[in-house]
Amino acid sequence: MSQNIFEGFDHTRYKDEVEERWGKHAYAQGDRWWRSLGSEEQAAWQERVARLSSDWASAAERGEDPEGEAAQELARRHVEWLRSIPGTPVNSPGGDLAGYVRGLAEMYVVDERFAANYGGTAGATFVRDALRAHVEQAL
After folding, report:
1. Of 35, 65, 96, 129, whose CB neighbour count within 10 A is largest?
2. Whole-number Å distance between alpha carbons of 71 and 137
3. What Gene3D superfamilies does the entry give (predicted)?
4. What is the dihedral of CA 38, 11, 117, 77, to 10 degrees?
5. Residue 117 near residue 53, CB atoms below 8 Å
6. What do you get for the CA distance between the two ends of the chain, in Å?
7. Which is higher by pLDDT, 92 or 117?
8. Which sign, positive or negative, has the C-alpha torsion 100, 87, 91, 123?
């Protein structure tokens, strides 16, 4: 993938929304983490996100079964990625990983900004269904 794919990336774009949904502490913790990364670490993290999104969209386009091996491997990678993000409910004492994943999975479908990351509503629906299955099978 192009190294410039995230040129102009602004992690503060959704600050108000994040603070409203999850609180100022969650935003501040994530912001502190992001700013602590060097430019190479930020680029590597962005590439990881882009690769995961692309792999999800490709699997959906191929018609993979959301409960099948390929989709469940993507779901495992997705949850691993979510666990790496400070400030999320997963990283809070008593955090509800299963509930967090279910909630995000649903948001991927109902919020077109998220759905776009997975090739649109159909791709996001595939991601949601695969993550739901993963929660039931592995979390």
Report:
1. 129
2. 13
3. Antibiotic binding domain of TipA-like multidrug resistance regulators
4. 50
5. yes
6. 32
7. 117
8. positive
* Pairwise CA distance, residues 136 & 63, whole Å: 21
**How many domains does one find in the chain?**
1
Residue 27 banded pLDDT, cuts 50, 70, 90: confident
Is 26 inside a domain boundary?
A: no
Beta-carbon contacts of 44 under 8 Å, excluding residues fewer than 6 positions away, are: none
Q: Is residue 96 part of a domain?
A: yes
Q: Is residue 47 part of a domain?
A: yes
Give the whole-angstrom CA distance, residue 68 versus residue 9: 34
The answer to whether residue 15 is domain-embedded is no
Instruction: Read off the CATH number of the domain in which 90 is found.
Output: 1.10.490
Q: Which amino acid is at 121?
A: T
